[in-house]
Amino acid sequence: MPDARAEFEDVYRRHLPAVSAYLARRVHRDDVEDLAADVFAIAWRKRAHVTAGEELPWLYRIAGYQVANHRRRAARRAGALGLLSAPDSAPAADILLDADPGLADAWRRLPARHREVLALVVLDEMPVAQAAIALGVSANAVSIRLHRARKALASELAGDAPGSASGERSLPSAT
Prior knowledge:
Blueprint: H1 4-24, H2 29-45, H3 55-78, H4 80-83, H5 94-97, H6 101-109, H7 112-123, H8 128-135, H9 139-158
């Protein structure tokens, strides 16, 4: 019988850098270590629920929940105005500011759902199938979300009105 502790230590060593990078793009760097510890504590308790080979997207999903919880706690601490903000687990535009201020502005204008799918697939270089696990949806849903997010980002970068793509007519969503 395989040693569960040794297997988990291997998962921890292999995926801690990726989970930490995921968190660092979403929260202040001072909070990354604590949140990563929380992610792996939860992962240890729920290790029986992960399919072999799907550990990283599963850890990203846990991390996404931890980021959302962290932001809710911060909003509560910030007072009544904090309650009005909608927490999400998408990365902040800060990560893009150094490279391209125009891209950072466009990123800020995207809805959180678009930022999250783009971050997983583009920034975290996660395959669509694994991003689906991380988001808790089907691979087809991720592909659709990714297409819409890329189109929205391109539209923002081109300076078009939200929801329209360079000269294309906007059709109602089928979803």
